[in-house]
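Researcher: Here's my situation. A collaborator sent me these components and asked whether they could plausibly form a single complex. I don't have experimental data yet, so a predicted model of the whole assembly would be a useful starting point for our discussion.
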Amino acid sequence: MRKTFLFMDTIINKVDAKGRVSLPSDYRAIVKETSSEIVCYRSLTSPCIEGCLEDLLDKLAADMENSLDFFSQEQDDLTNLIFGDAKRLPFDSTGRIMLSDKLLQHAGITDSAVFVGKGRKFQIWNPENWQAEEKRIRAEVLKKRPSLKTAGEDK
Amino acid sequence: MRKTFLFMDTIINKVDAKGRVSLPSDYRAIVKETSSEIVCYRSLTSPCIEGCLEDLLDKLAADMENSLDFFSQEQDDLTNLIFGDAKRLPFDSTGRIMLSDKLLQHAGITDSAVFVGKGRKFQIWNPENWQAEEKRIRAEVLKKRPSLKTAGEDK
DNA sequence: TTATTGCTTATGGTATAACATGGGATTTTT
DNA sequence: AAAAATCCCATGTTATACCATAAGCAATAA
């Protein structure tokens, strides 16, 4: 039995006319082993779909109950936004999930989708958009690399 | 058997002349699996109906017994209001609950209603009102994004 | 290396079950 | 008796389960 459950790698799969996509088999294995369920929602910051295990959202719900008081406005707003958008996406016997039009539109996905691992979470992108985004991120990281080095060297 | 029970997603359903609405099937599944019961009451802060499992109200009641200073007098009053207003709403064999005129009027609901997941709770809105509310929340939350990060949503 | 075999995964298509919803019948309340 | 709530049946729609084929991958044998 494995100790850690991380969404990794970048996998491109077809999306059929009904919005069905194969969840990458590695991802499915995680869902099975954790006895949890995939939950997806529109990213707040990027034109992509974001996904995670239901366990993670459950933890979030518990954290919010503890840190913010029961009737606070802030808690109200956050829970509406996050849970109002999220949806459990169980996969069928062949390993496919169904993406709603709302999700597909937000990410601009039509006939194929890219799964990008993010550790505890993952993202689903339109292939072209992801290509551009990856380029942007790589450039960003390269720019910062010197300072990263410096930070590590002078302790 | 599932580990987590979260009300999620945003579902719009028709309300017929008798005040009957289909409870979204995901919500019904939670009720069945927890052997609990849906409880609804008028939101104290918004023009909407709020609902949760009876279990949650029970936890609220227990918390109040156990901690003297956890809740202020004001919050104590609020819980009184909730318990005074709350009502169990069983659903029939086709999965519908009946919303009273009192609840419908408070939310301004006539012929259709939107269920909005909130994790441990959910809300029922008039569709137009919800659309406006969602817009408000998105703007609000994006302004406060740092605190969103703290809550664990964005790594 | 190349070919062969078998296994897992991806994908297309179809049948089936579940759901939302309208309408009516029966029961309970007042 | 009238009104309201509850139950039951019927239907169109949609999502889900299932089956079949195709495509990738790995291990093994030639």
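Model: Some features of this prediction you could bring to your collaborator: Helices of chain A lie at 25-34, 54-67, 73-85, 101-107, 127-153. The interface with chain B takes residues 35-37, 39, 44-45, 54-55, 57-61, 63-65, 67, 69-71, 73-74, 76-88, 118-121 of chain A (CB under 8 Å).
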